[in-house]
Design goal:
There is one protein chain. The chain is of the alpha+beta class and about 290 residues long. It folds into two domains: about 140 residues, Jelly Rolls (Sandwich); about 110 residues, Orthogonal Bundle (Arc Repressor Mutant, subunit A). Helix content is about 40%, strand content about 25%. It has a seven-stranded antiparallel β-sheet with strand order 1-2-3-10-5-8-12, sandwiched between helices. Strands 4-9-6-7 form a four-stranded antiparallel β-sheet. β6 and β7 form a beta hairpin. α1 packs across α3, α4 packs parallel to α7 and α8 crosses α9.
Length: about 290
């Protein structure tokens, strides 16, 4: 393995309407920039409503998708830039019957915070004001950065490109201080979120949430989904997956991670993980195993 990078490549043949489709999923973790780069080619996977704890900046190379983000819908196609803040709920699926080629980088909040301070001299996290920039000129700059991460560039041109890209995104598509942009949640919904975040490893029932808040089950479901943009169970699934990722990054085996994050068994865990992340837990674990070795 070359210092500073790890790659995991998944390639398989799937049967589509026009015959066999070659599906390739490539993930690289750049330990110099401390960011992941994803490259999905030939996939048809539908991603359910979920959110991430990190920023996502990406674009479509081939195929068209219907994106739902924070209860708004967008038809996106090649050349469109997608921008997700941590916590932005989103889902997407193909709308043209063709496979998807997609590239993105995932930026942890601590990396974003340091970069923003370098660029602006101000502390705090930015908030992207739109999830989609149609036909963005910045796609070419993002692709250049993504290719350098994939090709294992070692000189400072890669970091320079990252700062140039981020500078333009901050100037054109952000507000400073993410907390100010978040709508206030009711006390009942805040209590449910805190309860799920503390007890995600346990078996939780709708009765538990109803008793916690004093709300009827239906009113609770409707209110939570309206305020958070995601149902309580989808919120719980995402919390479990985010915590599972952290345990896998530490080298814990998938079967143990499944038990520690509230899944019934390893098969159940694997299905959910692949649905949300696009990789199996074992594939994700192998990325970080290579680094440790």
């Amino acid at each position: 393995m070359k210092m500073g990078y790890v790659v995991h490549l998944i390639s398989k043949q799937k049967k589509g309407a026009n015959g066999l489709i070659k599906e390739i999923r490539t993930v690289k973790l750049d330990t110099e920039l401390k960011m992941e780069a994803y490259h999905f080619q030939g996939i048809m996977q539908k991603f359910p409503n979920h959110f991430h704890e990190y920023y996502v900046i990406g674009f479509i190379e081939n195929g068209s998708r219907y994106l739902s983000c924070k209860n708004k819908g967008y038809a996106i196609e090649p050349g469109d830039l997608v921008l997700f803040n941590p916590g932005d709920n989103h889902a997407c699926e193909q709308i043209d019957g063709k496979t998807l080629d997609y590239r993105c980088i995932n930026i942890p909040p601590e990396v974003m915070s340091r970069a923003v301070f370098e660029i602006t001299g101000r502390e705090g996290l930015p908030c992207f004001t739109t999830p989609v920039v149609f036909h963005s000129e910045l796609v070419s700059l993002l692709k250049e950065l993504h290719l350098m991460m994939m090709q294992e560039e070692k000189d400072f041109r890669k970091e320079e490109t990252f700062f140039l890209l981020l500078e333009q995104l901050i100037e054109e598509y952000t507000e400073q201080e993410m907390p100010s942009s978040k709508p206030e949640l009711s006390l009942e919904i805040m209590a449910i979120c805190e309860f799920l975040e503390r007890n995600y490893m346990k078996n939780i029932t709708l009765n538990d949430l109803s008793n916690l808040t004093g709300l009827s089950k239906y009113y609770l479901l409707r209110s939570f989904t309206k305020e958070k943009g995601i149902s309580p169970y989808c919120y719980l699934e995402t919390i479990r997956i985010n915590n599972a990722k952290k345990l896998l990054e530490q080298g814990m085996l998938p079967i143990e991670v499944a038990l520690r994050t509230g899944f019934n068994d390893q098969s159940h865990f694997t299905n959910f993980f692949k649905k949300f992340i696009g990789l199996t837990p074992k594939q994700y674990l192998n990325i970080f195993k290579e680094i440790q070795e």
